[in-house]
Design brief:
The chain has about 180 residues and is of the alpha+beta class. It contains five helices and eleven strands. The protein starts with 10 loop residues before the first strand and ends with a helix.
């Protein structure tokens, strides 16, 4: 029989989708105020593999991922998703968001994203929040599942998460 133990801390990551760079920058500053120093920020990557957000945001969208130096308890993910949803509402104009803010976390084995939408591969956490394992680590890098979003399947995105994983690995190796 396995012994019940507390979860190990994980690396909080936030993905932003935006057209309006000012809203992204304000949201990033707010999140840094809440979670501490940002230890990784990707370059802005064109968000062009789906038109899902076009009715709300228009075209020419960008995506940026950040991670924070301070590790978090994975149990915090539902509260963090609720916080980012409130922030999205705050950064809205005419009932349309100016920035999409998606939290998740990674550890050495996987990347987990939070969602408000249920589906066959998502697990209910609490308070209307679900989680999905979006990528898993095998060999020398992150790999996609059959349900992984098309953009997360790209080498560019997987490279981003491999870089964040290396930062996390250094953190947990030094403890």
């Amino acid at each position: 029989m396995g012994k019940i133990a507390p979860a190990k801390p994980v690396k909080l990551i936030i993905g932003f989708i935006f057209k309006d760079k000012r809203s992204f920058e304000k949201a990033r500053v707010m999140l840094a105020g809440r979670f501490g120093k940002i230890d990784f920020e990707s370059r802005a990557v064109p968000f062009a593999l789906t038109d899902y957000y076009q009715p709300e945001f228009g075209t020419g969208l960008q995506r940026v991922f950040i991670s924070f130096k301070r590790l978090v308890d994975p149990e915090e993910l539902p509260q963090i998703k609720a916080l980012t949803n409130r922030m999205e509402s705050r950064f809205s104009a005419g009932n349309k968001r100016l920035v999409n803010i998606d939290p998740g976390y990674l550890n050495l084995a996987k990347l987990v994203l939070a969602s408000t939408k249920d589906y066959v591969h998502r697990i209910y956490l609490k308070k209307g929040i679900y989680a999905e394992t979006t990528l898993f680590f095998r060999g020398k890098g992150f790999q996609a599942w059959q349900w992984t979003y098309p953009d997360f399947r790209t080498e560019e995105y997987r490279d981003i998460f491999n870089q964040i994983r290396e930062i996390f690995n250094q953190q947990v190796s030094n403890e």
